[in-house]
Amino acid sequence: MRARREQESRLFPTANDSQVRWRAAWALGEMGPLAETAIPAIRGLVKDKSAWVRLAAASALVEIDPKEAEAATGVITELLGHEDVDVRLAAVFGLGKIGAEAAPAIPALGKLLADSEANVRRAAYDAVTRINHSRSES
Known about the structure:
Layout: H1 2-11, H2 18-31, H3 39-45, H4 51-64, H5 69-78, H6 85-98, H7 106-111, H8 118-137
C-alpha cells in the first residue's frame, strides 16, 4: 500500500497545482493501454476538486481501458451541469467520444438542448446522435 501511495504521489503531485494533475491525466490517457498500471492513481483523480482534472482523469480511464467507460460516464455526466460553459462543452464532447457506453447520460445530455449556449446545445445534439449511432452498431 505504501509503495502505491508513493507511486501516486510521483504521478500526481499533491501540490495545489491542478494544471499539473490535469496534464498528467491527459498524458496518461494519450498513452492508452500502455498506462494501465496508472489506473489506480487516475481513479483517485476523478474525485479531484478541479472539474478539469476530473474530466481528464475520467477520459484517460476510458482511453486506457474501455471497461472503465461506465464509471467515467458517471463522472463526466456530473460535469454537464457545471457553471463553466467550457467544462460543460468538454464534458459533452467526452461523452460523445465514449459512444454507446455513455447511453446512461442521454437524459442529462437532453437537458442541455435547452442550454443558454448555442455551442453546448449543438454539441449535446451531436453527442446524443453519436451515442445512439454507436448503440445501433453494437
